[in-house]
Design brief:
- With 464 residues, this protein is α/β, with parallel strands linked by helices.
- The chain has two domains: 7-349, ANL, N-terminal domain (Rossmann fold, 3-Layer(aba) Sandwich); 363-447, GMP Synthetase, Chain A, domain 3 (2-Layer Sandwich), CATH 3.30.300.30.
- Helices cover 22% and strands 30% of the residues.
- The chain is built from 13 helices and 27 strands.
- It has helices at residues 7-10, 31-34, 59-69, 88-94, 107-110, 156-159, 184-196, 209-218, 228-234, 257-266, 373-380, 411-414, 418-435, and strands spanning 21-23, 28-30, 37-40, 51-55, 75-78, 99-102, 115-125, 137-141, 151-155, 174-177, 199-201, 223-226, 247-250, 271-278, 282-287, 294-295, 300-301, 307-311, 314-318, 325-326, 341-350, 353-359, 364-366, 369-371, 386-396, 400-409, 444-447.
- Strands 2-1-11-10-12-13-14-15 form an eight-stranded mixed beta sheet.
- Strand 17 (300-301) and strand 18 (307-311) form a beta hairpin.
Length: 464
């Protein structure tokens, strides 16, 4: 039988410490206030048993809606910030939406539903009864979705299966995250903060990384998370050193050795870890030994019921944290015949360790030879003057496609004179030639001041 506990009932409210907050750049909401107040403009009973679309302009409003409605609504659909409005009718029909909770006046006009409720970032006194009446389904959008959105069904239980209430992450915590809580990675941190007795510092729309880190410092951040691309952006300036976390984590992209070591150097007293998780498979494992990849000893089933195996060079996961099924998708199965999620992440065994080399669907084809761009980026990123890089396939009239790299230098690298920059390019190419097969070596390298990072915190990949 599934655990029917709701988010609010599971939230650690010991003593209802007024310092336990959800924080943005202009608003702080304490759980003490939320215990006897509401951000909704209607009674919770008006949304009981409904299928509710949460469509908000900022994270805090979405977080408040989740806290208020889990256990009340039949289904909660958490709309990501970058969903194309043209897909809303499909989402509404597929998820059988009959109510919208929003802080945007235009949301009600975009789709026709039975009920529209407004949610604000300020609370008002209300007679609030959050006793759970439903095992609420949580509908999340898979990251990287293009075209018609792909949605998966979770419950509070599957979402919190990896969260421990004791051990290294226990105590008075202050979390900060570069993720958006309307996506799986950010939602995990929101749930950790709420159920583990901590506060959470949220980023605000358009907020610069230095400003966000300054706020994190003001709140005494102890735990901070983001994708490798988030971290590479943060480490470009001095702001990252203004905080002193005891725990720094990467997930959502391949964590190569260079970014792990940069974080260890920046936060020498912190536990630096990288984790593997996906919206479909849930949280699979965390690695905290200072090395890229993961130990081969993780294969098989662990005491938490998470079972890992490698089939046709891709990682597969069977777990009680896995989503229940896709929503819609014409019967498409989330699992293979043995009950595993095929992650599509390609791994390579070297000695007693597996290393992620890229996505099965992200291969560059050069004259019939296959290249994972992440493998090339990992080599480029090892250069001490490189902060981050993006490798793509570029059309070529002779070869069809060539390997091209865009490279962002560190602040020290950008101060180099033109001759030294050319020398850096030569050193990068030499490193690639010594570590990679000839067809994987970039045919061109272009230095740039920045790279596009998507709303989900991942490098914006495209083949030109």
């Amino acid at each position: 039988m599934r655990n029917t506990t709701s988010l609010w009932e599971s939230t650690d409210r010991t003593g209802l410490d007024p310092r336990r907050l959800l924080c943005t750049s202009d608003v702080n909401v304490s759980l003490t206030e939320l215990a006897s107040a509401s951000a909704l403009d209607c009674p919770l009973a008006a949304l009981a048993g409904r299928s509710v679309l949460i469509s908000t302009s900022d994270q805090l409003a979405a977080a408040l809606a989740l806290i208020e409605l889990d256990g009340i609504a039949r289904r909660l659909v958490l709309c990501p910030p970058d969903l194309d409005p043209k897909h809303l009718p499909y989402v509404v029909a597929t998820a059988e939406i009959d109510a919208i909770v929003t802080d945007r006046a235009d949301s009600a006009a975009e789709v026709a539903v039975e009920s529209v409720a407004s949610i604000a970032r300020q609370l008002h006194t209300a007679d609030v009864d959050r006793s759970p009446h439903h095992v609420t389904e949580w509908i999340l959008f898979t990251s990287g979705t293009t075209g018609v959105p792909k949605m998966v069904v979770h419950t509070f239980e599957t979402l919190t299966g990896a969260i421990k209430r004791s051990g290294a992450l226990a105590g008075p915590l202050v979390w900060a995250t570069f993720y958006d809580v309307r996506r799986y990675g950010g939602l995990q941190i929101l749930l950790r903060a709420l159920t583990g007795g901590g506060s959470l510092v949220l980023s605000s729309p358009g907020e610069a990384v230095p400003a966000f880190l300054a706020r994190a410092k003001e709140h005494g951040v102890t735990h901070i998370t983001g994708t490798p691309s988030h971290w590479r952006q943060a480490l470009m300036g001095s702001a990252a050193r203004s905080v002193s976390p005891v725990y720094a984590r990467l997930s959502g992209e391949i964590a190569d050795q260079a970014i792990i070591e940069h974080l260890q150097e920046t936060y020498p007293h912190a536990k630096v870890a990288h984790a593997f998780a996906s919206t479909e498979a849930g949280v699979a494992f965390e690695v905290a030994d200072g090395k890229a990849g993961f130990s081969a000893s993780l294969l098989g089933q662990n005491e938490s019921g998470v079972h890992l195996k490698v089939v046709d060079d891709t990682l597969r996961i069977r777990s009680p944290r896995t989503a229940l099924h896709y929503l819609g998708r014409n019967g498409e199965s989330l699992l293979d015949p043995d009950g595993f999620v095929d992650t599509g992440d390609v791994v390579e065994e070297r000695g007693d360790r597996f290393y992620f080399v890229g996505r099965r669907g992200g291969i560059i084809n050069v004259g019939g030879l296959k290249i994972h761009p992440e493998e090339v980026e990992a080599v480029i990123n090892r250069h001490p003057s490189v902060r981050m890089s993006l490798v793509t396939g570029r059309r070529n009239p002779i070869m069809g496609t060539i390997v091209a790299a865009e490279v962002v230098l560190t602040s020290e690298g950008t101060a180099l004179d033109p001759g030294a920059v050319e020398s850096t390019k030569s050193e990068i190419l030499a490193a690639c030639r010594s570590s990679l097969a000839a067809h994987k070596v970039p045919a061109s390298i272009r230095f740039t001041s920045s790279l596009t990072v998507t709303a989900s915190g991942k490098l914006g990949r495209r083949n030109a």
